Write the structure tokens for this entry.
Amino acid sequence: MTPPAFFNRIARYYDPLTHLYMFGTYAAVRRRILNTHGDGREVLDICCGTGYIGNAVQAQRVVGIDLSLPMLRVNQQKQRRTGRGSHLVNGNIRTLPFQSGQFEEVYFTLAAHEFPDLEDVLREVHRVTRPGARLTVYDLYETPNPLYRLMLHTFYYYLVEQRCMWVYTPEGWRALLERVGFRLASLQAPYGPSALVQAVRQPS
Ligand SMILES: C[S@@+](CC[C@H](N)C(=O)[O-])C[C@H]1O[C@@H](n2cnc3c(N)ncnc32)[C@H](O)[C@@H]1O
């Protein structure tokens, strides 16, 4: 996975860099994500980083968790400027410091590809959510489009992700989600080699 020190170093530049490497499409994707936001009152944003998603979600309570303190500092500065945002926790999503069944909605954006052990991470997400909760993942994926596949395995793999990238086909996502107790509700491809995956947590 991408070493945590990487995000510590680039925290101040993360937002403009992401805008660049997503070719300016992330704002439109965020609008799409927010339009599909459910009525979850307890929302969790895992790997929240600078809060691009979590700080824009309307809910009774949004909790953002991230390993990188510098990323969380940028998040906090943005919250001070805009006057809105989430409750931030510095922690590792592999062992979420939350009670079982606490959340009704989870966001996981631009980070799932960094976890070779994604199945274990999603099991932890299953633990902290209640039946019927919605999981929204937005990330790079193994697209069937040959041009975007080339882009994924060259530009993204070598340059952006520096060879730390674990991605799934749509079928791979379906199977992975089922193994950890979620049902795939939809998988859309809003831009190039990226997928917006929405899933529903099944009863244990
Ligand atoms: C590419 S950024 C994505 C940030 C944000 N979700 C977004 O959409 O812009 C990945 C984030 O994952 C965080 N991260 C990586 N491994 C983590 C872990 N094990 N636990 C918590 N956060 C982690 C990094 O610190 C970084 O802020």
In short: The mean pLDDT is 95.
